[in-house]
Amino acid sequence: MQATIRGRNARNAVDKKKQESAAAKAAVEAAKSKTAATDAAAQAAADELLEAEQAATKMQSGIRGGAARKKVAEAKKNKAKADAATEAARREQGDKEKVAATKAAEAKAAEAEAAAAAMHQNKAEQEAASMVQRQKEQAAATVMASAVRGRSTRKNLKEQTAATKLAAAQAAEAQGYAAAATREVAAAHAELKKRGSSRVLEENLAEAEEKQGQLAALGGAKACIAKAEQARLDAMKAADAPDGEAPFDLYGTLMVTLCKCFAPPPPMDPVQAAEEANLINSQGLQFNARGDSRAALRCFLKAASLCPLQSRYLLSAGNMHVKLREAQAARCIYEWLLTLPLADKEASVAQSKLEEAIAMETE
């Protein structure tokens, strides 16, 4: 859609520049006609002066000679006026020719810009069609997979370890893409500042900022998922340890004791974390009720970070991503949640919202 708007704007700019160029050419032609007229008047004045001078030469004496000399003086004045008018007309014609040349160059540049926009539009439309097809195929596969949701739940430590590593790698990759998008926005700002205001540059900046926002949201979602996977792995390891405890590590214990004064503050215990997450979640619900989806999203993500084993916080975060039209981040969260043994109500919400997010991506 943005490429289509860009192409239409470029075509409108071309039409406007062509009209301006045609008007400038017409002004040049009018100036040429005016110059020709003043040239003819100047020539007539010169002929009149010459005739008067010749008459005055023949009539050097008497009253007739004086009248002839007056006629010569008047003819000289008329010729001077005609010469001045001719010079002014030529200057005006020169100025109009310069304007016409400038307008013609602008029209040519606009045509080149329109051609580039049309090429970009065609490429964008092809990519969009390809992406829509892929998303339709992925949507069908996702709906099929969600029907057998329980089968994809990790059953053992090995599977959970693999899932945790994969989530961490995907989170790091998403953060890399988000950082690259941030650099693209900075480059677009610099280009706009360097070259001045331009519709194409402003559209490029808007596209870069939109891409940055989407990728930043996706990176945040994947980071929360990675933390949740790590929490599940830690819980499984703790459950597999004798008496529910990790094996005693004398060296590690000594090092912790020796370096306690230099270590960062210890994390909250589970009870405190759960209370804090519940309080922040309540704040998120209040923000959502007031229509502040962005503030609500921040609260839900923070709650999910404090209690990564509580899927309801991430489900709420996904819902906020949908409201903010951050379809990729929402889809990422819902697809991951549907690999977990959710309650029926949560699974139903995640499935319906997933389909909504997929439809949003294909718009």
Give the gist of this structure:
This protein has helices spanning 2-58, 62-147, 157-195, 199-240, 250-258, 270-289, 293-306, 311-323, 327-337, 344-361. It is mainly alpha-helical and 363 residues long.
Characterization of this structure:
- This protein is mainly α.
- The protein has 2 domains: 2-119; 148-361, Tetratricopeptide repeat domain (Serine Threonine Protein Phosphatase 5, Tetratricopeptide repeat).
- It has 10 helices and no strands.
- The chain has helices spanning 2-58, 62-147, 157-195, 199-240, 250-258, 270-289, 293-306, 311-323, 327-337, 344-361.
- Helix 3 (157-195) packs antiparallel against helix 4.
- The longest helix is centred in the first third of the chain and has 86 residues, at 62-147.
- The protein is rod-shaped.
- The model is unreliable at 142-152 and 247-263 (pLDDT under 50).
